[in-house]
Amino acid sequence: MQFDLATARADTPGVAHVVHLNNAGASLAPRVVTEAMTAHLTLESTVGAYEAAERAQSAVGRAHHAVARLLGARSDEIAIVDSATRAWGLALASIPLKAGDRVLVSPVEYGSNHLSLLHLAERTGVRLEFLPVDANGLVDPAALEQRLDDRVKLVAMAHVPMHDGLVNPVARVGELVRRTDALFLVDACQSVGQLPVDVREIDCDLLVGCGRKYLRGPRGTGFLYVRSAVADRLTPTVAGLDGIQWDAGGYRFAPGARRFETWEANAAARIGLGVAVDYALGWGVERTWQRIRTLAADLRADLAAMPGVTVEDRGVERCGNVAVTFDGLDPFHVRGELLRAGINTWVCLDNAACQDMRQRGLSRLLRISVHYYNSESELERLRCALDRLTTGSKATVFA
Ligand SMILES: Cc1ncc(COP(=O)(O)O)c(C=O)c1O
Fold first, then answer.
1. I need a surface site. Which of 74, 159, 174, 371 has the fewest CB within 10 A?
2. Residues ≥6 apart with Cβ < 8 Å to 203
3. What is the mean pLDDT of the chain?
4. Do the domains spanning 5-28+284-391 and 32-282 agree at the CATH topology level?
C-alpha cells in the first residue's frame, strides 16, 4: 500500500516553513500535539494549574498507557520523567553495584550515559568495559557471550546511537543477558517512534526513550520502562510523594516503575506525549519505519555518489539517521549554509559518543535525519544545496 504522504504533511504545519532533517534532534510535531498542549496551557492560565490537571486527569494519565502500548509493556512498568538522560541516570543509580562488579557498555553509547558510568566507576570501583563490536560497528553477540560471567551485573547499550544510522541487535543481546543475573538497560532514545521497539521481544529489564525525537512529542519528556519482575531490586535515589507509599507503618517505594516518579509534572507536556504516541500508533510504526528506511537508503546512495562527501554510517540495517563528512568542509559551515537555505540538519560533536567517534578519528559530522513526513522533493532540495556547497566555494576549510 502506498504511503499517504499528503496526510502526513497536512497534519504537520511545520513542513510549510522548513525542510526539517533534524528529526534525530527533535521532530516537527503534528498539529494534534501542539493543539492539545496549547489548549491545556490555556486552561491552566484560566482555571489554575492544579485545577486544570484535575479536569484533564485522563489526558494527563494517558501518557503512561500510550507509552506502554507502544513498547508492549504494562502501564505500571512506565515512569514518565523529563528526559532520556534523567531516565537513564535514575535507572543506573538505583542498581545495587559494588567495587569489582563488571558493567559492559556499547562504544556508541550516548555521551551523558557514558559520563554517568565513568563517574560511577570512579566513585564505586565498578569496572567499566566496552561491549565487543564487529566490523560493521554492531555489538557482536558471539563475542559478548565469551565475556559474560557472574561478575557482570549490568549490560547497557544504545539501540540506535545519536551519531550513526546503525541499529544494534538488542534482541540477540537480550537473549544472552537473560541467561545471567545481569540487568539489561537499553537506550532507545533514537529508535522509539522510528522503528518497532518491543520490550518483551528485546527482553530488557530497563529501557529509556524521549518524546521529542522520532515520536514527535514535546521537549522535556522522557520515559523509563522497568520490567515488573526487577522493580523491587531497584532503589531510587530520590523519594517523591508519587513514588512512595507512606503510612503509619512506615514507607516503601511504590510498586513498579512509579517509584521513579516524584509528584510534580508538566501536565501539558504529558498530554502532548500521550497524543504524540497515540498519533504514532495510529500510523503504525512498522509502516512509517518502512518509509523512513526507504528515504534514508535512497539518500545515502545519492550522497555516497557525490564527490567530496563521505557517508560515515555503519551497520547492516540502517535507520533514518544519516551521518556524513566533507572533504575540506567543516560540518558547521555546511549546516549554517543549509540553514540559510531553509534546511535543518545537525552537527554531532565527538562528545556525543566519544569512545566511538574518537576511535574513528571523527571530531564532528553532519547528521541528516529523515522522518516519514519528509518528501522526496525536500531531499532533492538538500541534494542540490549540498551539490552547490561541495562543488562551489570552499572558503571555510575544516581544520
Ligand atoms: C542515543 C541517545 N541517547 C540519549 C539521548 C539523551 O536524550 P535527552 O536529551 O532526552 O536526555 C540522546 C539525545 O540526543 C540520544 O541521541
1. 74
2. 171, 174, 175, 177, 178, 184
3. 96
4. no
Using the mean position of ligand 1's atoms as its centre, give its distance from the Cα of residue 282 in Å: 25
Tell me: the pLDDT tens digits for 341-360?
999 999 999 998 888 999 99
* Terminal-residue alpha carbon distance, the chain: 48
CATH of region 5-28+284-391, choose from 3.40.1280.10, 3.90.1150.10, 3.40.50.300, 3.30.565.10: 3.90.1150.10
Give, in order, the Cα–Cα distances in Å from 180 to each of 148, 168, 175, 186.
8, 20, 10, 16
In ligand 1, the atom with minimum distance to the C-alpha of 161 is 1
202-231 tens-digit pLDDT: 999 999 999 999 999 999 999 999 999 999
Domains of the chain, by residue range, sit at 5-28+284-391, 32-282
Q: Is 189 in the pocket of ligand 1 (CB under 6 A)?
A: yes
